[in-house]
User: What shape does this take?
Amino acid sequence: MPILLTTGRRALAYARRVRWPVVGSVAPLIALVRHRRSLGVPRPVSLALVATAPILVATALPRGRLRAAATWAAHMWAYKVAFELPYDDPAQTRARLHVDYPIRVDSALTGEPPSALLQRRLRRPPRVSWLDRAASLVYFAWVLEPHAALLWILLRHGDRFPTAAVRLGLTFDLTLVGYFAMPTAPPWWASEREGRLGRDVRRVVAEVGKELRGKPRPGVDHNARANPWAAMPSDHFASAAMTAMLLREIDLRAGVAGWAYALLLGAVLVYAGEHYVTDVMAGLLLAVAVKRVPLPLP
Assistant: This one.
């Protein structure tokens, strides 16, 4: 009972320090952004609105781990929306879409893009192999990996969290510059939708997902509703590489594990047709550049 009373008092004291009117403004903001297409909200306005979400959360909550975690979650929600924004007007973005230049650059490596080479040699469509399933598992682990690493830093090395969060967040955000300024088709889209790469490259992770859900394949539309043209640079590899570098600063074993996952993910991204080698290398260069930026944080 004394423990419950103490916990209750702490919770009440924390609640009194929360700026509830600011918290209350977050829900209408989310609702407005979610219905931006039907309401006809211009993309620049939507981008400005989502950028305020992490600021509102940080302003509303008292200092501490909860504020840090909630602010990061708000930032990633804002990133997800910003990631989707170029596809709010598919026709306009399609008119600026780049399809061929990454094929030419990747072809300089092995005579043909590695995605096509690997899928031609290692896949037997329409069969989904154990390699396809394993690659998909590695791919989907990325949804958790950078955030799990950041949570570990927050809980075990709290003094390192502000710098780590800013660097990882900046890495995510800077990929958006490429997605807005130079929309680029990934290998699977160029192959399935434009007939490039001999039509040999399929979106492996989508086919595995459809198999697990019992949906028909192949011959299905793998065009995601989010933004299928967000390929250059690879946000997957950029964030995984930054995560590995952040972990390496704190613990050698964690850093080795982070780099092992990042390198495996890079191979999977190419094999699965999600990114060209060019995209992956651009993501790596972005992460390295962000890591070298001096920050006025502890």
User: Anything to note?
Assistant: The radius of gyration is 21 Å.
